[in-house]
């Protein structure tokens, strides 16, 4: 199984078609993302095969080089009904390829999703442009991850919050008590961001976030409300997993890194299921810090002789 440390990148394009049916097809067609790690020499033949197989359908391939290797990581954005064929093409062209997990992008992303997509796009581009060098010590970027910033004291399980406003009030009081930032300032920051569009991502996940003047360090909170909260999520499901991100004012790189980390983890169904099974703050932190990877595609891969498209039954992110 590949270490899924490379960050996903999603590009939403506009495709012009001649009728409404084709437009609806294009809208739904770019909703599945798949990661593949393979030798760089296989990229061109794979691109040609996918171009042929996905003719007339919108799809995207993004390439990130892996330092000190001759391998690359691909982020493929495909129509759902093209996933099985893409897997067969990869295994035919590059038998040693490693597959990462699949997830679905909402057909109509909320502002919260767009935040994550912008962040992950930036993170992948920054990684590709960063000069390759041996990892001698942890860099500032390495510290901008959920597992390094989330401590048991910042895990709030079974909290009583009647609604989103009550949740933000609790987060504000927590930050004032533990980080010395006025609660009202935190609440205002979260509400200001929320006024731009819901930070609910769907599948019961929300990521309220803001830059806070006077905050000296990044703050990550995992909050599990006792009763799920309405967050105007794209799938209309109430929220049971809240990752609150607060960073110092002007800390744009840190902000983007943390949003990208949220996207990488919470788009994986298996990770969310394991998170829900955690009964204590220490278990939550161990899960975030675990080197074990979320569920990966080998267990989902259809046999080359399999017929039909079973992807829609498996793709739940």
Please provide a written account of the structure:
- With 317 residues, the chain is of the alpha/beta class.
- It has 2 domains: 20-105 and 295-314, ACT domain (Alpha-Beta Plaits); 111-267, Mannitol-specific EII, Chain A (3-Layer(aba) Sandwich).
- It is built from 12 helices and 10 strands.
- It has helices at residues 20-29, 43-53, 83-93, 111-129, 140-143, 146-149, 164-179, 183-195, 252-266, 269-277, 281-289, 311-314; strands at residues 32-39, 60-65, 71-78, 98-104, 155-159, 200-202, 205-206, 209-212, 219-225, 241-248.
- Strands 5, 6, 7, 8, 9 and 10 form a 6-stranded mixed sheet that branches. Strands 2-3-1-4 form a 4-stranded antiparallel sheet, covered by helices on one side.
- α2 (43-53) packs antiparallel against α3.
- It is elongated.
- The two termini are 19 Å apart.
- Mean pLDDT is 74; it is low at 1-30, 125-142 and 291-317.
Write the layout of secondary structure elements.
Elements: H1 20-29, E1 32-39, H2 43-53, E2 60-65, E3 71-78, H3 83-93, E4 98-104, H4 111-129, H5 140-143, H6 146-149, E5 155-159, H7 164-179, H8 183-195, E6 200-202, E7 205-206, E8 209-212, E9 219-225, E10 241-248, H9 252-266, H10 269-277, H11 281-289, H12 311-314
Parallel strand pairs: 5-9, 7-10, 8-10
Antiparallel strand pairs: 1-3, 1-4, 2-3, 6-7, 9-10
């Amino acid at each position: 199984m590949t270490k899924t440390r490379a960050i996903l990148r999603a590009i939403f394009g506009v495709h012009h078609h001649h009728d409404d049916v084709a437009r609806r097809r294009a809208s739904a067609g770019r909703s599945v993302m798949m990661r593949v790690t393979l030798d760089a020499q296989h990229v061109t033949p794979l691109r040609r095969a996918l171009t042929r197989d996905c003719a007339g359908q919108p799809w995207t391939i993004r390439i990130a080089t892996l330092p000190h290797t001759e391998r690359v990581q691909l982020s493929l954005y495909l129509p759902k009904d093209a996933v099985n064929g893409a897997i067969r093409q990869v295994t035919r062209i590059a038998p040693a390829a490693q597959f990462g997990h699949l997830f679905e992008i909402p057909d109509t992303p909320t502002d919260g999703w767009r935040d994550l997509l912008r962040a992950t796009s930036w993170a992948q581009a920054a990684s590709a442009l960063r000069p390759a060098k041996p990892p001698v010590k942890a860099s500032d970027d390495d510290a901008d991850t959920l597992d390094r910033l989330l401590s048991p004291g910042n895990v709030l399980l079974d909290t009583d919050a009647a609604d989103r406003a009550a949740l933000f009030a609790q987060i504000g009081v927590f930050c004032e008590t533990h980080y010395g930032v006025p609660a009202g300032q935190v609440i205002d920051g979260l509400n200001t961001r929320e006024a731009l569009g819901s930070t609910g991502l769907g599948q019961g996940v929300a990521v309220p976030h803001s830059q806070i003047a006077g905050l000296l360090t990044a703050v990550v909170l995992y909050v599990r409300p006792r009763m799920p909260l309405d967050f105007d999520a794209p799938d209309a499901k109430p929220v049971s997993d809240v990752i609150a991100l607060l960073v110092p004012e002007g800390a744009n790189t840190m902000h983007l890194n943390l949003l990208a980390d949220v996207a990488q983890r919470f788009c994986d169904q298996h990770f969310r299921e394991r998170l829900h099974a955690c009964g204590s703050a220490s278990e939550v932190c161990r899960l975030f810090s675990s080197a074990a990877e979320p569920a990966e595609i080998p267990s989902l891969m259809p046999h080359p002789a399999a017929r039909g498209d079973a992807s829609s039954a498996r793709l739940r992110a």
